[in-house]
Amino acid sequence: MHLPTSSSTNSPSLEITGSRQFNSWLAEQNLSLAFTTYQAGKVFFIGLQPTGQLSIFERTFERSMGLCVKGSTLYLSSLYQLWRFENVLELGQVHNGYDCLFVPQVGYITGDLDVHDVAVDDSHKVIFVNTLFGCLATVSEQYSFIPLWQPPFISKLAAEDRCHLNGLAMRSGQPGYVTAVSQSDVADGWRDKRRDGGCVVDVGTNEVIVTGLSMPHSPRLYRDKLWLLNSGTGEFGFVDLSRGEFESVAFCPGYLRGLAFSGDFAIVGLSKPRENKTFSGLVLSERLQSKQAEPRCGLLVIDLRSGDIVHWLRIEGIVTELYDVAVLPGVRRPMAIGFKTDEIRRVVRIGSVEHK
Q1: Burial 80-93 (b: 16+ CB within 10 A, else e)
Q2: Pick from 243, 206, 231, 241: which is nearest to 321 by CA?
Q3: Helix (H, G, I), strand (E, B) or coil at 232
């Protein structure tokens, strides 16, 4: 599908194409997908039209990053805010052909904390990775954030992005594991350790349980395994917790960020590495060259049983980098209300005193 970004014939455009069976896979899994791109400042919703063709819906939120779906609620982090959206449609309701309508209901002003992963604990508290300060934090009605935990190697809560803490895996409704690009304790020190300084930290024990990773992202607990993206090598895999080692399951042609699951499948986000120092000197570049492959942007569906990439969504044009991906189970065709049109003025939902 070709999506022009403006009426100008010379303006940049966006082209999203799926593999032959991608649409059928969405239908079989009875789900839709959402993904963010901070580079283009968008959140995208991927579903199916009544004809079976792809439905692609996007909204603008500057520096869109972390996504979290919890029931009918969706959380999204942006440049200096964290938004809570609610699906205002009841089961069976349809709005202009869409069976899910996310409306922003609450926005927290956090300041520019470079918020990465977002999650919700078993008491419904929002927890996010505050990358600038190198800690886990929660939102507040009085403050920019409330710090909850920091890695054992970070000696001071400072706005210095020392280790580039980025990923959060929840365990039994509480923060379980985090990923960081390094164990550096100086301002911006992680950039010197991109190739093999990455680690996984057990939040409960404060132990560094895995080292030697390359810019790891998106740790997720699924089916009793801790999965993650070893982004600097282009590998999707899991951590053998008994040995403290990363086991690769699949090589993916791009820089990996964003991981979600459905049944026997993993959905991962794929980005084109920027041509700057942050992405230079990584094993990923060497592996792409050895395989005579160019880096791509899009989504990959990986079969956990075989490690094969069985479906894909390819993105070309103005969007070159993704951050997060989320699964919307039971949703056929999602959309969202933003702030660039008048729609938000006309969406009014009445609650009751009994309903909280």
Answers
A1: bbbbbbbbbbeeee
A2: 231
A3: coil
Of the candidates 272, 278, 280, the one whose C-alpha atom is nearest the C-alpha of residue 297 is 272
- In which residue are the tokens 């959905």 written? 267
3-state secondary structure of 343: helix
Is residue 127 within 8 A of residue 116, CB to CB? The reply is no
pLDDT exceeds 50 at position 256: yes
- Please report the pLDDT score of residue 26 as a whole number: 98
Helix (H) or strand (E) holding 23: helix 22-29
Sequence spans of domains, the chain: 14-346
Residue found under tokens 């791109």: 37
For the whole model, what pTM was predicted?
0.93
What fold, for 14-346?
Neuraminidase (2.120.10)
Give, as one character, the DSSP assignment of residue 190: G
Residue ranges with strand state E in 214-345: 216-222, 225-230, 235-240, 245-251, 255-262, 265-271, 298-303, 309-317, 325-329, 334-336
Q: Tell which residue, 105, 107, 101, 106, has the closest CA to residue 336.
A: 101
Decide which of 275 and 215 is more confident.
215
Torsion of Cα atoms, 51 then 261 then 76 then 23, to 10°? -10
Q: What is the pLDDT of residues 20-31, one digit of tens each?
A: 999 999 999 999
